[in-house]
C-alpha cells in the first residue's frame, strides 16, 4: 500500500479559491455580484480577480506577505478574498468600525505590503497613517484606492486606483491553475484581528485548508442549497465573513453587496433580488425589528438567517421570525474559522408549542463536519462534563479548520492551544440530545455565594419583558456574596415614554428565575457600549458596576444615564 | 507566519470515520440502522463498531492490512465501513455477484488477513477457498461468519461468529479518539476492485482523506438534507456505496438495510419508513418500473434518487419520475471515490417543456467541490475542447479525492495518471452552461467512415420507442465504413407478445437521427449480458456483433435469441 505515492492528479491543496475558477466554468451565466446598478457574472469576477492578482504579482510581493483592506461590503471587498490569496499572500480585512489608533496598532503588527482603502474610509486611513511613525509603513506600504465603480473622481497622484488597475492589467499564465499560486494547503490565507473586548487585538491566522473545510462544512451545517442569493449584512471583515465569501462561490450563488447595513437597504434588497440567505450578529435584529414595521411582514419562502456572535434570547428569535425570517443559530469563533456549532432543526420539534421551539432554537447546537471533536470540560479537572444540562464546563474544540495561531504571539498561541484543544473561553452545558448551549464567556460568569450565575440566563429573562430592547448583565460587588448580578437595560422607544422602573424588572426576574440569580440593580441606558463588530463591551459595564453599591433595602428609582458609557461606546 | 506550527488542536487527519463518534454524540436518539424488525441507534452502532474494532486489534493485524467482506447490504456490512478502518486496516468489500473464480483472483491479490462472510454467501465462499491453493490464504486468513441477527444457527467450529464477537468483546481505550487509530489521512481506507468489463479486476486504493472529501462533497452535490432516511438499493461494495456509507452517518441519517433488491422490498420499505433518499444504477429502474404498477404512483415528497453508472436516457428518467421518484443524475468512478459530476438542477429549467427537462437531466452536470479540476481534452493534442457541445474529448479529473492508485499494479497506475490527471477513458462534451455530457467510453465509440458515433446517443433514441425496455449499441464490422452500429434490444414484456420488428426500430431511428448513425442491425434478446454490478457487458455484445453480417438489402425479420449471451450473463 505504501508504494502508492501521491501525484499531481490525486494530491491537490485544499483551498477555497478553487471555487472561483469552478464557479466561472460551472455557473457561467449566473450573476456573481449585484451592487446597486452594477452586476457581474462569475466569469467576470474570475477575470477581475485574475487581473488584480497579476498586478499584485507585478509588485514582487510573495508568499506570507500581508495585504490589508479597509472597506465595507463592496465588490472589491468580495474580490480580494480571492485575488489576494491567489497570489500566495495573506488577506487581512480590517474592522472598519475601529478607531484610527486601534487600526494603527493592527497595521504596525500585520506589516502589510499593500493596503486597499475604500473611498469612504480615506479620511480614517489618513488619520491612521499620521499615527504611524515615518518608516513604519510609509516607506514600503502601497495604498490602492477603491473608488465607486464608474466614478470619475481620481485618487490623489500618490494612490493607485482599483478599477484602473483591473482595467489596465492583463492576467498572467502563472494564474491558470485551479489552485493558482497556492502550493501548500497549510499556508495562511487570512489574518483577522479579533474584536478584543478585553485586551489587545490578536491576529488570527487561518490556513487555506482550514478555510476550505469551514466553507464546505458551513454549507452543510446551514443546508445552503444551490444558487443562493446572499445578502451581505455580515461584514466580510468579520471572521472573513464566517467563510461565506467562499461558500457563496462554491454554491454558484449571487452576492448582494451593500455599503451600509440599514433597515431601508436590507428590506429594499431583499425584495428587489429575492434574497434567500443572510448572516448577522443578533445586533442586526434590532435594525430588522425597527425597520420591519413597514408592511414587509411575511415572506415566502422566508429569508434564511444564520446568526451568531452572541446568544439571541428565545423571545428575540420569535420577534424576528414573525417578520419573515427563518433563523438558524450558530456559534463560532474567529479562531475556529467561522461557525463551529449549528442548531440543526429536528422535524419533531415542529409539533412543540412556539415558545418551546424558540427555546430549542436558542441553543447553539451540534458541531459542523470539519470539527473533529468538540467537548465541554471541567475547567479544573479537564474531564468531560455529563450531558445533564446542569454541569457547566469550558467548550473545547479540535479540528483542521482551527486557526494556525496568533501572529507573532507565541504566548497567547500556546495558552489557547493548551492540552491539545482550542480552549474557547466559553462556558457551556450539553443536553442529553447532544446539543450544546453556551452559558457565558468564562470571564462573564457571576460567582455569587459560590454559585455560578450565567449572565446570559439573566439576560434571557430580561428580554422576555415586553419593554426591553437590549440587556446586558455583569457582576457587581456584594459585601456578603462576593458578586451579584447587575443589569444594564435599554428600553424600547415607543410613542410614549416607557414607565418601566427598576423594581418592575426585578419583580419580573423574581417571578421567572431563582431569587439568587436575579439582578440586585438595574441601570437604564440610552445605548449599550459596543465594540467595532457590535459586541457588547461587558468590561466597560463591569467598570461601572464596580462603582455601584448594593442596598438591599433601597431597590430604587435611581436612573443612571451612564454618561461615561456612551462616550466609551462611540470610541470603540 | 511560518513560525506557527501545526499542533494537536488544529491538525486532525481528515477521515469519514470521525462521523461515527459525532453521530453517536449529536444524534443519540436517532435510529442509525433498520433491518427488518431490528433497529439500532447511533450510540449502539458506535458501540458495536468499537467492539468489533477491539476484536480486530486483538488479532494483531496492523496498518495497511486488508480485511475483506462478502456480504449483502446487512447491518454488519454497514458497520465494517467504520470498524475496519478505525483500526488502521483497509476495508475490501467484494462484489457478491462475482463468480468464485473471480473472487479467488481478488483474494489472491488483496491478501486479506480477515474475511467476513455473510451466511448467504457461505457456499460461494467455500467454493472460493477450494480454488485457492493451500497456503495462499487458509494458513493466515481468518473467517468471521455473519449470521442473521438473533439466529441460533451456529457457524462451524472453525468460524467465528460476528454477533458473538460483538457480544463478547469489550472496547479498548485506544479507540477513544475521534479519528480512532488513523494517524495519517493519506493512509488507505478501502480497496475496491473495479467491475472490469474488459480486463482483469484492478484494486482501487482510496485514502481516508479522499473518502472524507468525497463524502462531504456528495452531501453538497446531492443536497442531502439533515436526517435522511436512506434506502440501501445500491450495493455497499460498489465504490464503497459511493461514499454514502459515511455520508449518512455525517447527516445523522437512518440506513434502511435490505438483503435483496426486489421491487417488493423497495416499495415496502419506502412506504414503511418514509424513505427520502436512495442511490442506484439505471438497471434498478427496470425493477422500479416493473414493480411500480401496483398503485404506488405518487409520493410526496418524492424519493430522491441519485443515479449513475451509465447514462440514463431522458425517456427512462421520465418514466421513473412518474412513479414518484425525483432523479438526480451523477457520474462517478471507483477511481474518483464516487460521484464526480452532479447534474445540479436550475430553477429556470422548471419552465421548460417536460421532454426538454428530461434531456437536461440526462446530462452528467458539474463537478463536486472536492474535485479540484475537471476538463475534456482532445485525446491526441491534450488540449481542452471548446464548450460547444460538438467537440468530443476525454474527460480528465484531478483532486484530493482521486484514488491513491491500483494496488500492486504500477503499470496501470502510471497509465491512468499520465499527464497529471486521472484519465477516465470516457468521452464527453461540454455545454456552454458548463455541464458535461458523457458521450461514451472511449472503447465503445463506433467509428464509421471516419465519423465518431456515440453508442449512447443511438441508445437514447432506441429508448424513446415505447416498446423498448433495454438497449445496447456496439460496433459491428462494415465492409465499406469499417464499423457500423449494431443494436441489442430487450422488448417490454406486456400481456400480449410485442409485434415490434427490426425494421420498425431502424425506421424509428432514421426518423430521429442522422442516417449514418442508425443501427444497421437489431438483435432482440431476452436479457442483456451484465456484470456483477449490473453494467452491460459491451465486449460480449461486440463478440456477437463481430459474427453478424451487414446486408443492406435484407434488414430483416431474423430474430436472434442470443443463446450464448444469456449463459454468459448468468455467469458474470
Automatic annotation (TrEMBL), chains A, B:
Domain AMP-dependent synthetase/ligase: 21-407
Coiled-coil region(s): none
A Pfam entry, by short name: AMP-binding
Residue ranges constituting the AMP-binding enzyme C-terminal domain according to the UniProt record: 457-535
Keywords on record: Ligase
Record PROSITE patterns: AMP_BINDING
Matching InterPro entries: AMP-bd_C, AMP-bd_C_sf, AMP-binding_CS, AMP-dep_synth/lig_dom, ANL_N_sf
Record-stated family: Belongs to the ATP-dependent AMP-binding enzyme family.
Name of the protein in question: Butyrate--CoA ligase AAE11, peroxisomal-like
Name of the coding gene: LOC104789589
